[in-house]
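Explain this record to help learners:
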Amino acid sequence: METCRRVGVIGLGLMGTAIAERLLGAGFEVVAWNRTPDKILPLRDAGAKWSDNPFRECSRIILSLYNSDVVAEVLSRFEDAMRPGQLIIDTTTGAPSDAEAMARRCREQKVSYLEAPVSGSSAQLRRGEATVIVGGDLAAYQACADLWPLFGAKVFHVGESGAASRMKLVTNLVLGLNRAALAEGLVFAEAIGVDGAQALQVLKQSAAYSTVMDIKGGKMLQHDFAPQAKLSQHLKDVRLILDAAKEHNAALCLAELHRELLEAAETAGLGELDNCAIIEAIRLRARSANGSCSPFSTGTPGETGRG
């Protein structure tokens, strides 16, 4: 018998796995599916159950997928099992127009669709420290009051479908630039003979402070690039930001430079590492022959040395 304590989770990447762990820790029954089934193995000991089609077993289904194209593909795959009264929570970061299209598609099935992108890494979500931005029907949002505290410490309902995607792009623009600024600051400190750990300590107590320093500063200094959120995924988000800016005739000069840096980092083999590996991209550029700020002219692909 289905109960409200049973929740489907589709997509077991870094964020989806963290969401499943939070649900299991709160006593929910998790019914999971992933395109590569072995991703469920670490969750099985904690009580997660595999399903070939969570839509057949759950009234509420959480999607945590790479992009909106994958969301559309997954919904097509399970469309026959969708039924009136179900509720989808989509944590995928995508274009606002995609979220609006998904909501229309679900309404045709009498299924509620909430976009709920997460601001924060999988590690922050696992600790209950992330921020969730929700767009969609207010009644559907209120029907998930028991789930939102598991996603993050702060939850904002910002309007109808598309509104949360727009807000997430704004937050990701600022967050990504904060991370890049910290990385360049630490590389600069190294270049002029300032101890990196001391620089980070002072920065945290100065007007330059951002929470990125707490979350990524130590990882940058320790060359710890185990992924909490992948660099390539942030590049995908920056491209979405720039697409939205172009659509609205807004020039984003810093975001353009950030995209160039991330693309160069991906070319250098850093894409699957944590997004704080942008410091390695900046180090590679700093070691280039002319020290210019153009895309990499030197550096071995895949190099993540200690500079």
Observations:
- The first strand starts at residue 6 and ends at 10.
